[in-house]
Automatic annotation (TrEMBL):
This is Ferredoxin. The lineage of its organism: Bacteria, Bacillati, Actinomycetota, Actinomycetes, Kitasatosporales. Residues 10-38 form the 4Fe-4S ferredoxin-type domain. PROSITE patterns: 4FE4S_FER_2 (PS51379). Keywords: 3Fe-4S, Electron transport, Iron, Iron-sulfur, Metal-binding, Transport. It holds the Pfam family Fer4_15. Signal peptide: none annotated. It comes from the Bacteria.
Amino acid sequence: MTGRADTDPVLVRVDRDRCIGSGMCALSAPDSLALGADGLAAPLAGYADGGAELTDGLSEAVDYCPVEALSLHSARGGYRIAPAE
Ligand code: SF4
């Protein structure tokens, strides 16, 4: 886990080969993630494209995904924010 980058918008990536559709992330971060029609998690709005605010709920979703399918990336720099490499 790294520190929050409050001024840097983040992108959420979902590893669709790992996601098991538990829905935990959509509960932790309902403004950032939802289950799609295929039953797998998908980033919402700016989190898929362009970047949006890093929230506590989103950090929690990444930390608690049971299969480590979520990652956060800097929309500007492209580097991975969480989880730590
Ligand atoms: S918590 Fe992880 S496994 Fe569950 S729906 Fe979200 S990304 Fe998929």
